[in-house]
Specification:
Blueprint: H1 2-24, H2 27-143, H3 146-163, E1 172-174, E2 185-188, E3 194-199, H4 204-211, H5 215-238, E4 252-255, H6 259-268, H7 271-278, E5 281-284, H8 286-307, H9 309-384
Parallel strand pairs: 3-4, 4-5
Antiparallel strand pairs: 1-2, 2-3
Helix pairs in contact: 1-2, 3-8, 4-5
């Protein structure tokens, strides 16, 4: 429609231009007509332009409105789809959020229980620590007395002896506490040999060494402690713990009932142990004492086994003799039992048959006798009943 209108307008303009050219060559009247025609042409073009522009605007607005409506509908559908997608995503996020909230609640409850258990354990640990500190303090106060240290060392030695399987009065003897100058323990060995053991616990200067923070004092306490150990070794060697007249072996055991003290002696001055061995003194801790006792116990068991081997062989010979006699008697009894079984089978079969035969004959005679007695009575019945 716009094209037809535009062509019509162009045709009119072309005709007007031709008329303007024609009037141009006609003189003054022609110029007047030319001007009038040009003025009319301008008015016409203005009107046509306005009308074309107006119609063009209307068409543009209509097309734009249609396009806008289509775009609006498309955007609305898109928004609806996105809304559904957003709602679905929101539902999923809501479920996840609820799950997270449940997990957080469970975590809080679990953490609360764990914190309660930890608090309880910490309280128990604090109580146990307090009791341990109290016990440690009591032990330190008790170990401050040399008499109590000696008793504690003897008690530890007895525990190790029981652990190694030693029995008092059989494997060892313990001296009474009031007997001075006597070993604390005497171990009984084969062939009436013995080995003595003394319990020593040098502790005072050792404890001062660890309690002191001054380097000079610590060195002084350390040297004094090592001198105490040497004095204890000398005390053992000067006594009659090694005496061939009493059947003792050439060594004596010096028991230090504390692994830390024993290890400290080794670390501080290892020559003390070498010097002690030269003087036939074996220094041992709880662990090494158990090893020594295990060796002594094995040696005693082996000696006893060797000593009793001849007796065992003699007993085995006697046992073999009695066993052969037992086997011979069993064979005789078996033979007699076999003969008795055969005799029993004969009684059950042959003798029983022979005894039952006259009984059967007697039974047959008895049956025949009864039949003979019943026969006259049957004949009498037939006579009295002729109809039969």
């Amino acid at each position: 429609m716009y094209i037809v209108f535009l062509l019509t307008a162009l045709g009119v303009v072309g005709i007007a231009i031709i008329m303007v050219i024609w009037f141009k060559y006609r003189g003054a009247s022609g110029r007047i007509m030319q001007e009038q025609l040009l003025q009319q042409l301008k008015e016409y073009l203005r009107t046509v332009s306005l009308e074309v522009l107006s119609r063009n605007n209307e068409e543009f607005l209509r097309v734009a409105g249609e396009i806008l409506n289509k775009q609006t509908q498309l955007h609305q559908k898109e928004l609806e789809n996105k809304k559904d997608l957003i709602e679905q995503t929101f539902d999923v996020m809501k479920e996840r959020l609820q799950e997270v909230q449940r997990l957080v609640a469970d975590f809080k409850e679990d953490r609360k229980q764990q914190f309660g258990a930890i608090n309880s354990q910490l309280r128990i640990a604090a109580e146990q620590t307090a009791r341990l500190q109290e016990t440690t303090s009591r032990i330190q106060n008790a170990l401050a007395s040399s008499r109590i240290r000696g008793q504690w060392g003897e008690r530890m030695a007895e525990d190790i002896l029981r652990l190694a399987g030693f029995i008092e009065g059989i494997n060892y003897k313990k001296q009474k506490a009031l007997q001075e100058g006597r070993p604390d323990f005497t171990f009984l060995l084969p062939q009436n040999l013995i080995v003595n053991m003394d319990v020593k616990f040098p502790f005072d200067n050792y404890n001062h060494y660890f309690e002191s923070s001054d380097k000079v004092e610590r060195q002084r306490y350390k040297e004094q402690f090592l001198r105490d150990v040497k004095v204890k070794i000398k005390e053992v060697t000067t006594r009659n713990y090694i005496d061939s007249s009493q059947n003792t072996i050439d060594y004596v055991i010096l028991f230090i009932p504390n692994e830390q003290v024993y290890a400290f002696i080794n670390e501080a001055d290892s020559s003390i142990l070498d010097e002690a061995l030269k003087n036939k003194v074996i220094i041992c801790s709880p662990l090494t004492l158990y090893a020594i006792l295990a060796v002594i116990r094995q040696a005693v068991d082996n000696f006893n086994l060797e000593r009793t081997a001849g007796q065992i062989l003699s007993i085995l010979g006697n046992f073999k003799k009695q066993w052969n006699m037992f086997i011979e008697s069993m064979d005789k009894m078996g033979k007699r039992l076999e003969e008795a079984r055969k005799e029993f089978d004969a009684l059950v079969s042959t003798r029983r048959t022979q005894l039952e035969r006259p009984l059967r004959q007697i039974e047959e005679l008895r049956v025949k006798e009864e039949e003979t007695r019943e026969l006259p009575f049957q004949k009498h019945e037939k006579i009295n009943n002729p109809a039969d």
